[in-house]
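Extended Data, panel c. Modelled sequence:
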Amino acid sequence: QVQLVESGGGLVQPGGSLRLSCAASGTIFRPNTRAWYRQAPGKERQLVAHITTGGMTNYADSVKGRFTISRDIAKGTVNLQMNSLKPEDTAVYYCNIRIDNMDYWGKGTLVTVSS
């Protein structure tokens, strides 16, 4: 049983920054990939970034150079630092963990980028 809880969403002006965090609990001591997805109104859920146990990362082209994903394995947390935010970044952001090809999801946190 794995539980994920996101935090840090909110309203920010274009060009601003936000830091999202996700706390994980349960049996997560095996190799796993942590990820952030987002879903904007009228669009499908899309991968934003992911990070492996070994620290390898990958980012969607739309956020490269602006977002940074990181994790603390001991604490079971994963973060997403979002800089230079744009209105098109507005979406519900979901925390994800994949263990042995099984996905677990948080309930999401809303990020709104608007002036």
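The chain has no helices and eleven strands. This feature is highlighted in the accompanying rendering.
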